[in-house]
Specification:
By secondary structure, the protein is mainly α. The protein has 7 helices and no strands. Helices cover 83% and strands 0% of the residues.
């Protein structure tokens, strides 16, 4: 039994919200609101893709030292692979949101609209989870690359005693936790408000289906 079928158990609960409206009056409003929300989410995702492209490549053309370090980093297949994966995931996220918007805009069926809303929620959930995982991986990995590519930093770390190494590990964990918290709050604000509205539409659509 799929998620929609499980949710049918509480569709018959009454509500004053719809007392003076028929299903034919309410559905077009929910459809329009849902389409508008997903369209906004799509525009935000495009802006985010452009932002990450600019952050990644604009400094490359204005800083010789950064250009040199990036070129050295791209010699490492792990760094190159993660960079490509990052852009592929963001591009896929943009495509899936665009597809969700088209699906919601073209449907005239409440059940299909609910399915599209569920898919949109899952896409955003997995995208945010992916970004949190990447932050968790990237900070220690960046430290590893710095250790191997920066001879001065390498010599400093190699000379650390047990206490200094423990402090370095603790600082790395703390910085990672702080960045995870910042990114989580960023996406909570960026997508959370719109997702809350989309969830509200979904809840109202459940009450229309009998």
């Amino acid at each position: 039994m799929d998620e929609l079928e499980l949710l049918k158990k509480d569709w018959k609960k009454g509500t004053e919200t719809f007392k003076n409206y028929s299903d034919s009056d309410i559905y077009p409003m929910l459809h329009k609101k849902s389409s508008s929300i997903v369209k906004t989410l799509f525009y935000i995702s495009v802006a985010e893709l452009v932002f990450w492209v600019l952050i990644s490549y604009v400094p490359y053309f204005f800083s010789d030292s950064l250009r040199e370090r990036l070129e050295t980093s791209y010699e490492n297949p792990i760094f190159t692979g993660l960079t490509i994966l990052g852009f592929v995931v963001v591009a896929l996220f943009v495509y899936l949101l665009y597809k969700s918007h088209k699906s919601i805009s073209s449907t005239d069926n409440a059940k299909k609209l609910m399915e599209s809303i569920l898919k949109t929620r899952k896409v955003i959930k997995y995208y945010v989870l992916y970004n949190l995982v990447m932050i968790f991986i990237s900070i220690p990995l960046s430290l590893y690359f710095e250790f191997n590519q920066n001879s001065e930093f390498h010599d400093q770390v190699a000379a650390f005693d047990t206490t200094q190494m423990t402090i370095l590990v603790a600082v790395t964990i703390l910085v990672t936790a702080i960045f995870l918290g910042i990114i989580w709050l960023f996406y909570k604000l960026l997508y959370g408000i719109l997702l809350k509205r989309l969830n509200s539409n979904y809840s109202e659509l459940k009450k229309l289906e009998v």
